[in-house]
Amino acid sequence: MAVALVLRLVLGGLTVEVAGRSGDVAVRVYGLGTIEAKVSSKLGFAVAGTLSELGIDAGGTVSQGTILARLDNAEQKAKVAAARAQYDKAMAQSASARAIVAKAAANQAQKERVSQRRKALVASGTISEETFGDAHAAAVSAGADSQAASAEVALALATLADARAQLDLNEVLLAHHTLTAPYDGRIAFRYKELGSVLAPGEAVFTMYDPATVWVLAYVDETLAGGIEIGQPAEVKLRSAPARRFAGSVVRIDIESDRTTEERRIYIACRDCPQHLGEQAEVVIDTARLDSAILVPIAAVEGFDGRQGTVWTVEAGKLARRKISFGHRTLDGRLEVVADLPDGARVITRLVSGLSEGRSAGIVEAKP
Description:
The protein is elongated and about 150 Å long. It contains three helices and 20 strands. The chain is of the alpha+beta class. Helix 2 (74-124) packs antiparallel against helix 3 (129-175).
C-alpha cells in the first residue's frame, strides 16, 4: 500500500500554468535619463575684468545679439583712443610723405630738363663743360632725393598699417568687454553678480535653445538593439508624475558608456517642460507583435540572450526543451520564435514536482 502511494505521488498528474497566444503585443524598452538641450552653451568673456553690468537673469528669454553683460571697459576705451590717435598721426605722416614724393619728382624732372638743355649747348660750344657738369650733378641729386622720398612713403605706409592693426586689435578687445547672446534662446543659469572679478573664459551664464530641448535616456545595451530613429516614445517626469508626454527617438549614440554598459538615446519631446536636468523616465516602442507566445524570463533556465531551456507539456507529459526567443517585453516576458514542436505548451510558472515524463494537466495563464 505504501509503495503504491509513493508511485501515485511521483507519477500522478500535475496541473501547470502554460502560455497562451497573445495578440497585439507592444515591445517596449525602458530608459532613465534627464531633460537636456542639444544646443546649450556656457557664456563668458574672452578677457579678464570686473563685471559692471548685467542685463538678464536666469529664466530670461533673449534674441540673438542681445547684450547680456558688460565688463568695466574704461581702461580699454583709453587704449582705443590712444590707438586711434596713433592711426590719425600715421595717416598725416603718410599724406606728408606722398606730398614730398610729388615735390621731389617735380624737382627731379626740372633738373633733368636743365641738364639735357645744357648738354646740347655744350655740343654747340655755347657753354662750358663745367656748367653742364653742375647741371648734371643737380639732376642726379634730385633723383636721389626722389628715391629717398619714395622710401619715406613706404615707411609711412608701413607705420600706417601697423597703427591700423593696433586700432583694430584694441577695438576687438573693447568689443570683448560686452557679452551678447549668440542665438535666440533662454538663460538657464546665472553664475556671477555685479562686481565679480572674472578670469578669461569664466562662465557667467548657461544659455540654451528651447527648440532643441530633448530627453537623454540611458538604456541597457542588452535591450537597446531594437531601438531605431523615429520610433515613438513616452516620457514621464518627476515634476508631473500623472502626465505622459509623447516623443520620438531622434538620435542614438554610437559609443556606449563603458562603465555602466548603457547606450545614450535622445528623445525629442516638444511638450515636455523645459526643466533642464530633471529626471525623466522613458519608454520606447520598438516593435509590435500581431500574435506571440510569451514566456516569463523567470520560467527560462540558462537564458543567454537568444536561447534557454523551458518546461513544456507535450501530449500530456512534462518535458524539458531548449528553444529560441526573440523580443523581450517590458514586463520581462520573452517571445518564443523557434524550436517549439506543434502542440507543445510552455510552462510559465515553475512549481515543485516537475519531472520529465510526468503526466500534467494545463491551465492557460492570463495574458
